[in-house]
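[Q] Does anyone have a clean structure-token version of this?
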Amino acid sequence: MALPMNARARQAAQGASAADFASTSAEGPAGAKAPLLSPSAAPIRFDVGPAAAGERLDRYLARAAAGASLGLSRTRLKALIEGGEVRVNGAPARDPSAKIVVGDQVLLARPEAEASELVGEAMALDIRFEDAHLLVLNKPAGLVVHPAAGHARGTLVHALIAHCGSSLSGVGGVKRPGIVHRLDKDTSGLMVVAKTDLAHRGLAELFADHGRAGSLDREYLALVWGDMKKHAGVIDAPIARDPRHREKMAVVAAGRGRTASTHWRLIETLGPASLIACRLETGRTHQIRVHLAHVGHPLLGDAVYGAGFKSKAARLPAKAQALLEKLGRQALHAAKLGFVHPVTGMRLTFESSPPADFSRLVRALETIYK
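[A] Here you go.
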């Protein structure tokens, strides 16, 4: 008996409903129909059905493209719309928020697949699960997830290309193949990587929802400065790029940034520090680090958001001070990851203990202060 899949994966596997778009075709000469996934660059036509009436153009195309297994993200489709690559009833439609009506013909100039210039680099990976569609790994601190300025080589993506070979080609884009979420360079812990377009779409849906309605379950361990005073709490504060320091994120006034919510619970108080568990309701860049610094409890070892706590670190007992210096990064670890497999429907749950340097620091604080 077939196992359940999440909605996006099911739609991609079975095709979109006729009620959503009445017909789908690739137009060739004189309007002749060509195979839907022809290797040619022929545009793809979607005819809007009653169920999609009044929907935003970008949302409609995201569902339609998923149903046609085109492997285009909503962000990519939005860029194509704004770039004039989408026509509605023959006229360019450059507004992603434009509403469509029954009978509209939406023509998408499907872009050619962009060849990746990344070369795989063999490196040891701590893989906790792998099948034909995805893999789950335990990322070490210090490993950059994908190529960026200053990190052209030696990233997790390079290692994944070497490990997965051609199966990873084109999944999620040439710069970040297979990546549906990321951890900061100096954050350790569990990550899931997509190996097929079908898995990528299903996982992307889960991470976009952050577990509010779907099956995603993530928990981070964080070692922070100060006594949290309460057993649990929620930090709700919008986050945006810091206007004064563009390499940083910051909490900003309502309406200026993107909504962000972090749930935390106290595990134990350790003298001048606390060990807490965090769950994210949103997934903003540096969210845990920014939120905890905002409420006066930055992560131990966080040179970016906890720089003002150097004097506090200097007052630690010698052993703890030496271990914190040896840690040399923010004390943050992605400890739990659970989700329903987007293709098989199997529930997968993983746990990862913090790395040795993180654990040694916690034990030293426990010995000193408990």
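[Q] Thanks! Anything notable?
[A] The chain has three domains: 7-30+40-108, 127-207, 217-369.
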